[in-house]
Design goal:
single chain; 72 residues; mainly alpha; two-stranded antiparallel sheet; 3 helices; 2 strands; globular
């Protein structure tokens, strides 16, 4: 994906990280998944977010968690 996935601007949702080109907070994706909703349900409710953006955000989160993990 050539453009940023996540964007933060104080004039958009008070600076909360949103999907680039939308006003949809990234946190909404994780809230949906945490409550047991599917990715398809999230995308249906937030059509301005593309499947590619959502998957890329999940991959970024996975990479961040893996980089922050410490061996047991």
């Amino acid at each position: 994906m050539g453009q940023p996935i996540i964007h933060s601007n104080p004039r958009i949702q008070g600076g909360v990280p949103v999907f680039f080109g939308t006003r949809v907070p990234v946190k909404n994706l994780f809230d949906y998944l945490e409550s047991g909703d599917s990715l398809d349900e999230f995308l249906e409710d937030f059509p301005s977010v593309s499947r590619e953006q959502a998957i890329a955000a999940l991959e970024l989160a996975r990479e961040a968690l893996a980089a922050d993990a410490h061996p047991a």
